[in-house]
Amino acid sequence: MSSAPRAAEAPVTPVAEPPSAPIRGTRHEALWLTTLGFFGGFAGVSIFGPMVPKFTDLLGLTPFEAGLLAAIPSLTGSLLRIPFGAAVDRLGGKRPFLVLLLLTNVGVAGFLLLLRTSYPAQMSGTYPLLLLLGVLIGCGIATFSVGIGQVSYWFPKNDQGGALGIYAGLGNTSPGLSTLALPLAVGTLGILTAYSIWFVVLLAITVVFALLAQDAPWFQLRARGVTARPDELRLLGGSELTPRGSALAGLLHAAGIPATWALVFFYFLSFGGFLAFTTWLPTYWHAMFGLALGQAGLVTAIFSLLTAFVRAPGGLLSDRLSIRYALPLNFLLMLAGTLVLAFSGTFWLSLGATVAIGLGMGLQNAIVFKLLPSYIPDAVGGASGWVGGLGALGGFVIPPAMGIATGLIGGHQGYALGFLPFAALTVAAFPVITWLGRWSARHHAGPV
Predict the structure, then answer these.
(1) Which pLDDT tens digit goes with each residue over 267-318?
(2) Cα separations (Å) of 36 from 146, 170, 230, 270, 308?
């Protein structure tokens, strides 16, 4: 097991075609198509969140069961990020991405069928089926790690922070917009019509991606039996990064670098926390302050959209500024906001606390994937699978934990104090930051 990343080795096979061999697509086309696909797939994280209060009432769910239902798409989306993210190193980005989008379409179609046949009078006993549909719908969330590899293999290293920030930032607006729009659409059009419109949009995005998306130049050349040096790949419109050749090799190599696991933990808190808060906040606002479903969705959307939008400028800044102090400062902002949220009984103070948390999470999300290619340059797909997959698992683990704490404390105040488990996890990040800095100095790894 290696302790530091190895530099990518230049291929030894001679180039079989001139470097000017035509490449289908451009890096900017790839960025926008991948962002569009992720936007469509990622809406699955919020399909249940805004509706959990309704399902809780209809099915008589406990706080733990409600938290599990809200989080179940994140479980699938998190675990599948690992193999599908690693598969990019072997297959390129288009095929794994498209498979996940198709599975998401199947899940949404099944959800629509359930609503047509059972909602609301015959929902009794449908909780297990809702969980199963959540598993399928969560496949769209897993597109994230595939897209990270796709964008990274298209863009040069010194432009990856901005490109990944745009990809993740705009794609991450999907839960916020869905959390905002779905309850409002349900209230005006009815639940079946609202979710039918969302399904049509998802299907259209899937078709556009299938028709227009292209793999990065390295994978196009390999399909022709051609190899090229990193500098030639860049001239052809791609990245100088080259994969190790297999999904398993990429996963094993990334797993052997200790910094990978620090990034996993950071992402568990920042992005997993983002998923958790997006799915849990509608229930919190409804139970703590008595907000109606549409109002709870609107307030949650403020948090979700802010976290998403700040990721793009955060990524651009990470290309130009030192991030030595950014990691601890962002976690400090998240911790302070969570503690205020836990002990506040005032709506406006609680809303301000979620804004602070969202800023910290959004900036931290951008930094983590800027760091990743620096630590694991020759297994970006495998590393993005570990970080994106296990990190996003926080979206599944944290809501039930907050639900358990809420149930144990009881009452309205329990929904506020239920955020304390997340605050405790955030405190644990500070010693990990210290360790990562020392490891980087010893092994001359990571950004300067």
Answers:
(1) 999 988 988 898 789 889 988 998 887 788 788 888 988 888 887 777 666 6
(2) 13, 9, 28, 22, 14
Amino acid at 240: E
Q: Hey, what domains does the chain have and what are their CATH numbers? A: 27-443 (1.20.1250.20)
- Write out the DSSP string of 16-74: SS-TT---SS-HHHHHHHHHHHHHHHHGGGGSSGGGHHHHHHHHT--HHHHHHHHHHHH
Start-to-end Cα distance in the chain:
25
What is the C-alpha to C-alpha distance for residues 130 and 124, in angstroms, rounded to an integer?
11
From residue 428, alpha-carbon distances to 36, 331, 422 in Å are 35, 10, 10
Task: For residue 107, report the phi and psi dihedrals to the nearest 5 degrees.
Answer: -65, -45
What is the per-residue DSSP string for 219-280?
HHHHHTT----HHHHHHTTS-S----SSHHHHHHHHHTSHHHHHHHHHHHHHHHHHHHHHHH
Task: Please tell me the pTM assigned to this model.
Answer: 0.74
Name the maximum alpha-carbon separation found in the chain: 70
Of the two residues 161 and 18, the one the predictor is more confident about is 161
CA neighbours closer than 13 Å in the CB half-sphere of residue 198: 35
Q: Which residues contact 119 (CB under 8 A, 6 or more apart)?
A: 191, 192
Structure tokens at 443: 């092994």
